[in-house]
Amino acid sequence: RKRDYEGFLCSLLLPAESRTSAFALRAFNMYPFQIKDSITQKTTGLMRMQFWRDAVEDIYCDNPPHQPVATELWRAVKRHNLTKMWFMKIIDEREKNLDDRAYRNIQELETYAENTQSALLYLTLEMLGVRDIHADHAASHIGKAQGIVTCLRATPYHSTRQKVFLPMDVCML
User: What are phi and psi of 166, to 5 degrees?
Assistant: First the structure.
């Protein structure tokens, strides 16, 4: 609710039986997302990413860590048979993003958005029982658009930290 208010509001529109799982997905997504802004050394970020990578592995081995989000995520995975690959893509892409460098081009930003925002949408579709190539195609485009918009919306925040994450090819125009 605090870290992803828009996602929280959208989750309220889902069927009641899916809301708890949707909240777990959104809460999970916030952990790797926030790591970059909460560390001063990349090594610390890598350790936190490894915690979540191990947590997802343990969730799929029916041995979730004693962490509230991981426990709820385990319940969601069991209830909806969610694909582990999407969780790993989110973690892997957020880990690559710890380097604090601008995207070289719009394609790099789209790849980042696909592996984070779209992956979250694929998991949400699975949670809702939607396994359809056309829905996945739409989720891919929506996720990329969300990722680009998020990058644009974060520009004032990043500028206060004297950082630019807009694609360099766009900035050079």
Answer: -70, 150
